[in-house]
């Protein structure tokens, strides 16, 4: 990769990775710790994620248990889960919080696929914004006499290839997640 484009390639990779992490939180029919590990709660005045203050486990095909390191956090964990709007009601036994993952309805699956497609489009928009920034940077360098116009054209083609590659990765991740949502 050309040194003039290296930073933009890294930004595109980060955008794809962000999308991949973001869609991992979309619920499928089976429990996943990604549903809850990102939930944040107040811990001694700091906002921390749930996985930093509790052990998260998948007990069976329908339940996630959250066992806090300190039992006094149970009510805070319940409030944080309710605030996260997961569509699940936490239950506690004084030692841990249980989340029963309800079976997915066909309507909910279709709704999640729509959300997934919206997220994929947002990821592609961010890739196009990175392309725009790269092209503006290249034009500025050409105007300042730092690179030739022929080189600008070649580099712009390279930027487009990078965007196309990153977009296809986003599509790949989205397609895989869609199958996961519809099949479980």
A few lines on this structure:
The protein is α+β, with helices and mostly antiparallel strands.
What does this structure look like?
- With 184 residues, the chain is α+β, with helices and mostly antiparallel strands.
- The chain folds into two domains: 6-24 and 105-183, Ribosome-recycling factor (Topoisomerase I, Chain A, domain 4), CATH 1.10.132; 33-100, Gyrase A, domain 2.
- The protein has helices spanning 6-24, 74-83, 106-143, 149-183; strands spanning 40-43, 46-49, 54-60, 63-68, 91-92, 97-100.
- A four-stranded antiparallel β-sheet has the order 3-4-6-5, covered by helices on one side.
- Strand 3 and strand 4 (63-68) form a beta hairpin.
- The protein starts with 5 loop residues before the first helix and ends with a helix.
- 23% of the residues are buried.
- The mean pLDDT is 87.
How much strand content do the residues show?
Answer: 5-15%
Helix percent reads: 55-70%
- Structure class: alpha+beta
CATH superfamily of the largest domain: Ribosome-recycling factor
Low-pLDDT stretches are: none
How do the SSEs run, as a string of H and E? HEEEEHEEHH
CATH topology of the largest domain: Topoisomerase I, Chain A, domain 4
User: From the 3D coordinates, which CATH architecture of the largest domain would you assign?
Assistant: Orthogonal Bundle
- Give me the number of helical elements: 4
State the shape. Answer: elongated
Mean pLDDT: 87
Query: What is the count of β-strands?
Result: 6
Biased composition (Basic and acidic residues): 169-184
Keywords: Cytoplasm, Protein biosynthesis
GO cellular component, one term: cytoplasm
Subcellular location: Cytoplasm
């Amino acid at each position: 990769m050309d040194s003039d484009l290296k930073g933009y390639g890294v930004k595109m990779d980060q955008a794809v990775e962000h999308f991949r992490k973001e869609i991992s939180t979309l619920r499928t029919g089976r429990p996943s710790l990604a549903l809850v590990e990102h939930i944040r709660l107040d811990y001694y005045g700091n906002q921390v994620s749930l996985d930093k203050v509790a052990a998260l486990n998948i007990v069976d095909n329908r339940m996630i248990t959250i066992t806090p390191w300190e039992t006094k956090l149970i009510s805070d964990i319940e409030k944080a889960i309710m605030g996260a709007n997961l569509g699940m009601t936490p239950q506690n036994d004084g030692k841990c919080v249980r989340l029963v993952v309800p079976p997915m309805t066909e309507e909910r699956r279709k709704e999640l696929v729509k959300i997934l497609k919206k997220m994929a489009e947002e990821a592609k928009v961010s890739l196009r914004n990175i392309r725009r920034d790269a092209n503006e940077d290249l034009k500025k360098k050409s105007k300042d006499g730092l690179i030739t116009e022929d080189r600008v054209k070649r580099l712009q083609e390279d930027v487009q290839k990078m965007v196309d590659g990153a977009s296809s990765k986003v599509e790949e991740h989205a397609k895989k997640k869609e199958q996961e949502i519809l099949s479980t």
